[in-house]
Amino acid sequence: MNFDESPEEAAYRAKVRTWIAANAPDLSVLSPTEQRQWHPRHKEVARLWQTAKADAGYACISWPKAWGGADGTAIEEAVFGQEETRAGMQFNYFRTGLDMLLPALMEHNKDEASLARVPPAVRGEEIWCQLFSEPASGSDSAGVRCAAVRDPGSGSGAGGDDWVINGQKVWNSGAQIADYGMLVARTNPDVPKHKGLTVFWLDMKTPGVEVRPIRMMSGDNELNEVFLTDVRLPDSQRVGEEGGGWKVIITTLMNERASLGSGTGLNWRDILDLARETPSFDGPALDDPAFREWLADLYVDAEAIRLLSFRTLTSLSKGATPGPEGSAGKLLWSNLAQTLTDKALDILDHQGLLDDPDEAAMNGAFQHRFLWAPGLRLGGGTDEIMKNIIAERVLGLPGDIRVDKTVPFREIPTGR
Fold first, then answer.
1. Cα 413 to chain centroid, rounded
2. Rounded to 5 degrees, what angle do the CA atoms 159, 163, 169 make?
3. What confidence tens digit (pLDDT) does each residue in 74-131 have?
4. Residue range 188-196: average pLDDT?
């Protein structure tokens, strides 16, 4: 694999770097508190940035123009993403929709009403959330108990044209600000658990949808519970085939792990800057030989994530769904995020106890990320799930014993 850029790619990078420098929003006008993700003013800046990108042809670059993209290449999209990260323009509000859900919607649905939802999301006018996890099925996405049944009295379709949905979802990132969601429901409990699932998209203002934010120890309420009570959806909002939801789930999860596996947020450069400015025994922490040795190890892990992201990029450029390289990258990034923030608080000593963005070093970014990082080991599939994927799909080891794989879902014990 050749990692060198072609002359065309290098010219494109120079072009987008210039554009970003000229158009990127000035985050310094926001207070330290307002600069944190999920703050309303931070979200508004992110929305304006997304719109500016769409107007200039830099949003969802590899998507068709008809859907708000730019008919560009996956390489160009990756280059722009790298330059965005380099400029500190990392906004997570649109990531779930644009990186995970809408690619699955476009792959499995071709109807006009569904595809009409894509351009507004590209422009940042609509935000999407994922409604997969449930209290009894976190990483086991096939264990969904939220039920969707057809209303036999609706429309002229077999069994009715409308679906009525009841159940509960949990750990739904951004659901409190989302305009639309993609939901997995069980539509046939009499077949094995992977075969009786169907996916829908829905307006989060649909009657019967209730979002309850979860207060996290970092102080954020990024995660939510979502309750669905007699939520009525037309069959036209079904994604993919009835009972074929597992295919949609796999598409989404592979996109999610590829996205997470590319890594975002604080990196080795940030802790390098922190160590340069933080006093230690005989000078800045950066002069400590033990810290320098640790930083070298961290850099190696960060490079591994970067190189794995190239494998993902290769798959995407060939039109393929990202494979287990996304799981490997996600596993490495989870560990790196926790290791990096733990070390940062260590070298900050008692200053590491400060989480006030107005008082703490780097606006408390490391303290905030430290409290957030453990959740990364669970979101998008736990470490154990990622290791199973690597063991089975990369190393070719025997699969886990799954005693419920062929059992009708209705007969699987619930433990209650």
1. 31
2. 145
3. 888 888 988 888 888 888 899 899 988 999 999 898 888 999 999 999 999 999 999 9
4. 93
**From residue 269, how far is each of 147, 297, 327 by CA, in Å?**
47, 13, 24
**Mean pLDDT, residues 193-201:** 95
- Closest C-alpha to 225, from 238, 235, 236, 216: 216
Give the count of beta carbons closer than 10 Å to the beta carbon of residue 315: 18
Q: Which residues of 110-121 are buried (b: 16+ CB within 10 A; e: fewer)?
A: eeeebeebbbeb
Cα-based distances in Å from 132 to 40, 143, 274: 26, 10, 38
Please name which of 104, 112, 111, 58 lies closest in space to residue 81, comparing C-alpha atoms: 58
Q: How far apart are CA 327 and CA 209, in angstroms?
A: 32
Residue 2 has pLDDT above 60, yes or no: no
| Distance, CA of 16 to chain centre | 24
Closest by alpha carbon to 309, among 78, 76, 100?
78
Give the C-alpha separation, 414 to 135, whole Å.
Answer: 12
End-to-end CA distance of the chain: 53
Sole residue written with tokens 């990078």: 13
Contact between residue 239 and residue 201 where contact means Cβ atoms under 8 Å apart: yes
60 to 20, 72, 108, 318, 354: CA distances (angstroms): 15, 9, 18, 17, 38
SS3 state at 232: strand
Pick the closest to residue 140 from 200, 203, 186, 201 (CA basis).
Answer: 186
| Residue 395 to residue 375: CA distance in whole angstroms | 27
Q: What is the pLDDT of residues 291-310, one digit of tens each?
A: 999 999 999 999 888 888 87
d(CA 152, CA 159): 5
CA-derived radius of gyration, the chain: 22
Fill in the amino acid letter for 330. Answer: K
Q: CB of 221 within 8 A of CB of 256? A: no
